[in-house]
TrEMBL record:
Residue segments, region Disordered: 32-89
GO cellular component, one term: plasma membrane
Primary location recorded for the protein, binned into one broad class: membrane
Localization of this protein: Cell inner membrane; Cell membrane
Membrane-protein topology: Multi-pass membrane protein
Function: Required for the insertion and/or proper folding and/or complex formation of integral membrane proteins into the membrane. Involved in integration of membrane proteins that insert both dependently and independently of the Sec translocase complex, as well as at least some lipoproteins. Aids folding of multispanning membrane proteins.
Subunit structure: Interacts with the Sec translocase complex via SecD. Specifically interacts with transmembrane segments of nascent integral membrane proteins during membrane integration.
Domain Membrane insertase YidC/Oxa/ALB C-terminal stretches: 373-576
Transmembrane segments: 7-26, 373-393, 436-456, 501-521, 542-561
Protein name (Swiss-Prot/TrEMBL): Membrane protein insertase YidC
GO molecular function annotations of the record: membrane insertase activity
Residue ranges with Low complexity bias: 72-89
UniProt xrefs under CDD domains: 5TM_YidC_Alb3, EcYidC-like_peri
Length: 598
């Protein structure tokens, strides 16, 4: 098999691999499933405070969550009475805390809008019961005896201290059960997304009481988002150094024993979206029970702490953290540095984490240096090509030597005739004599595949690429090129097809077209093969990839264009250094390989 056929088979095989991975990683959009019961039937919205929603108990402790002391926790429904709210104002978040249950159920992110338009609404992270998508966090106590009243979801807390929660001003809530127990919550917040909840219970009775603190995040139904194989959304938790990710669809199938993990020292758990996250974080070094489950369409994550005994005249205290905000790499990294174990892994780095983490770290550094994520991607590509240059040089040098050996290989074929074994032995001797490795040309291509998918992962999941502009019409590098050939790139007064339309695939923007041209020129460094079938396959490949990658994020297409351009220049210069001058214009005109040789 000559090198042209070998290159054809290699290129075809790699193309099929890329196409196969494309359909695995980016399946067709599915209708987001509604909440279902265990039989798969739709369910009505249930009371978030039903018995099944109480945190799991320990050593016979029974949950009690109402001021009436019935032992049956009940969350506010749409008919629940209104209660005062405490405003939250920080540089990063706005919202309020509901004194009804002391719940975090109203939170928006000040620095992020739903759409690219600056007048678009802020991203809403947490929302109260009674809305379309209730999503909130509660913290409280479980009772060790049925006759002990503890605050629950229907408890209206009094504002003991503070009016507005700010980084400089914490607030304190209190509730007296009327039977000798006084409960307090002191809530503080930093200038980012971390809340600190200090819970205390003061025992003024003559009896020792037994209580168990807990924290909980509740989410009614799945978020309305398009599922991606490459992206995890659902439960994420760290338990003594072990990371676990559970999709929403898989949570109902998790048995009780597997849903509970006894954490001895460090851990955290919560719900993660593509860019946002709500996470319960016990104080580092604290033992707790980590629980993730689903009850009647309501998804729950819980941190349940060991029971404490409070003697008469004594006060018990529990401290925990709540992260509710954007998954900013630098912010998450700083929280990890402050003691939260492996918190950076709350970002979905994927299978190639050993590549995605350093790639993003370099990209983030370049963006801090340059101030433009598009130019940072271009410079990152130059760095990657520089790191791989020794392999590329060896590959292109080997290819140039292979071309120098073409006359001798033709003579060898004539002497061998139909004796394939003799031909193979002669070729191996020829390669060995001239120190040529015919497989060396494959290595740079194989290395590009994991780098390509790692960079796509970085661009797809990291918040820093969201709504990041480059130049002119590219205002969001995490989205496809918004220009379209169908309206002559904005010259005609016609709207382009929506991404969900069947015509979107032919609505090519400027970047995808430049990608196809760069692949076409790179291909024309070599003459077209003499076989008509081979010529046709090679001729179609750049344009097939152009349509395939046209709907990718602009940042990834920009990387691929830069990569192709640098590869073209490297290969051209290395070929010239070995005495071979590529006839690019002749190759574009379709001159077959045998004609070029003559």
């Amino acid at each position: 098999m000559d090198d042209q056929n070998r290159n054809l088979l290699l290129a075809t095989a790699l193309s099929f691999v890329v196409i196969l991975v494309w359909f695995l990683v980016f399946p067709p959009p599915e209708q987001a499933p509604g909440a279902t019961d265990s039989d798969g039937q739709p369910i009505e919205q249930v009371d978030a405070g039903s018995d099944d929603l109480a945190p799991p108990t320990e050593d016979g402790l029974d949950p009690s969550g109402t001021a009436s002391g019935t032992g049956e926790p009940a969350a506010p429904s749409e008919e629940a009475p209104e209660a005062p709210r405490i405003a939250i104002e920080t540089p990063s978040i706005v919202g309020s805390i509901n004194t009804l249950g002391g719940r975090f159920d109203d939170l928006s992110l000040s620095n992020y809008t739903e759409e690219l338009d600056p007048d678009s609404p802020l991203v809403e992270l947490l929302s109260p019961v009674g809305g379309d998508t209730p999503y909130y966090s509660v913290h409280g106590w479980l009772s060790g005896a049925g006759d002990v009243d503890v605050p629950g979801d229907s408890t209206v807390w009094e504002i003991e201290d503070g009016e507005t929660l700010t980084p400089d001003q914490p607030i304190t809530l209190s509730w007296d059960n009327g039977n000798g127990l006084i409960f307090r919550k002191t809530i503080s917040v930093d200038d980012k997304y971390m809340f600190t909840i200090d819970q205390t219970v003061e025992n003024t009775t003559e009896d020792t009481i037994r209580l168990q603190p807990y924290g909980q995040v509740r989410r009614h139904g799945q978020p309305d988002s398009r599922p991606f194989f490459i992206l995890h959304e659902g439960v994420v938790r760290m338990s003594d150094g072990e990371l676990e990710e559970i999709d929403y669809d898989d949570l109902p199938d998790v048995i009780a024993e597997e849903s509970r993990i006894e954490v001895t020292e460090n851990g955290w758990l919560g719900f993660t979206d593509k860019y946002w996250m709500t996470t319960l974080i016990p104080a580092p070094g604290t033992a707790f029970r980590s629980v993730a489950r689903e009850v009647n369409g309501i998804f729950l994550t819980e941190s349940v702490f060991p029971a404490v005994e409070v003697a008469p005249g004594q006060t018990a205290t529990n401290e925990s953290l709540l992260f509710a905000g954007a998954k900013e790499w630098e912010t998450i990294r700083d929280y990890q540095a402050s003691g939260i174990d492996r918190f950076i892994d709350s970002i979905d780095w994927g299978w190639f984490f050993f590549l995605t983490k350093p790639i993003f770290a370099v990209l983030h550094f370049l963006n801090q240096l340059i101030g433009n994520m598009g130019w940072s991607i271009i410079l990152l590509t130059v760095i990657i090509k520089g790191v791989l240059f020794p392999l590329s040089y060896k590959s292109y040098s080997s290819m140039a030597k292979m071309k120098e050996l073409q006359p001798e290989m033709e003579k060898l074929k004539e002497r061998a005739g139909d004796d394939r074994q003799k031909l193979q032995q002669g070729m191996m001797e020829l390669y060995k004599k001239n120190k040529v490795n015919p497989a060396s040309g494959c290595l740079p291509i194989l290395l590009q595949i994991p780098i390509f998918f790692s960079l796509y992962k970085v661009i797809f999941v990291t918040l820093e690429l969201r709504h990041a502009p480059w130049i002119g019409w590219i205002r969001d590098l995490s989205a496809p090129d918004p220009s379209s050939i169908l309206n002559l790139f904005g010259l005609l007064p016609y709207d382009t097809p929506d991404p969900g339309s069947i015509f979107f695939i032919v609505s090519l923007g400027i970047l995808p077209i430049l990608l196809g041209i760069s692949m076409f020129l790179q291909q024309k460094l070599n003459p077209a093969p003499p076989d008509p079938t081979q010529r046709m396959i090679f001729a179609w490949m750049p344009w097939v990839f152009m349509f395939m990658l046209g709907s990718f994020a602009s940042g990834l297409v920009l990387y691929w264009i830069t990569n192709n351009t640098i590869t073209f220049l490297q290969q051209y210069l290395i070929m010239r250094s070995h005495g071979y001058k590529p006839d690019i214009l002749g190759n574009i005109r379709g001159k077959p390989a045998d004609a070029a040789k003559k």
